[in-house]
């Protein structure tokens, strides 16, 4: 992927001083290319509302909204102890398998918090062509992915448990695994879970032809 980084002046500085600093080379946008093992998808801050029965309403977000981080245009501010940066990301190559890590956990000095936002995602036919830079789109014949595994975290961050949804490729059936227990699961139930890590498989030419047949 390409990573574009731009240093920001300290927010408390006077406007004139900020404008001067922005002219310096240190504050110009820089680009580096990097390999990646997985893509981290950031969840929006989750305000928990209560309905008229005082029950919590858990927010939801579409997968494509959090994938926008990698469209080459979406900017996000990153803060370090001393400095602030604006970053944006753009994919330049799509591998046969993609791993998404949905960032549910944030740590501070005292405890770990978990974001319970539900991510709405399709099980099949997720096209990632728009996240590639224009000049490399032509080199990618296939940019469509299907989900093959979904790891879920249930419960509190410190004492929760994990479940895994796995696609059996031969039959097209989904199974849920937890410890030694294996059960069938309907695909539509997978999308209701607090997905944490997902593995997606790129469709190859013969699979694309079967879909079109």
TrEMBL record:
Enzyme Commission number: 3.4.19.12
Name by which UniProt lists this protein: ubiquitinyl hydrolase 1
Organism of derivation: Bucco capensis (collared puffbird)
Matches recorded under PANTHER family: U4_U6.U5 TRI-SNRNP-ASSOCIATED PROTEIN 2, UBIQUITIN CARBOXYL-TERMINAL HYDROLASE
Any one GO BP annotation for this protein: protein deubiquitination
Superkingdom, taxonomy of origin: Eukaryota
Alphabetized Pfam families for the sequence: UCH (PF00443)
Record's catalysed reaction(s): Thiol-dependent hydrolysis of ester, thioester, amide, peptide and isopeptide bonds formed by the C-terminal Gly of ubiquitin (a 76-residue protein attached to proteins as an intracellular targeting signal)
Entry keyword annotation includes Hydrolase: yes
Gene: Usp39_1
InterPro entries: Papain-like_cys_pep_sf (IPR038765), Peptidase_C19_UCH (IPR001394), Ub_carboxyl-term_hydrolase (IPR050185), USP (IPR028889)
Molecular function (Gene Ontology), one example: cysteine-type deubiquitinase activity
Assigned keywords, A-Z: Hydrolase
Domain USP intervals: 1-203
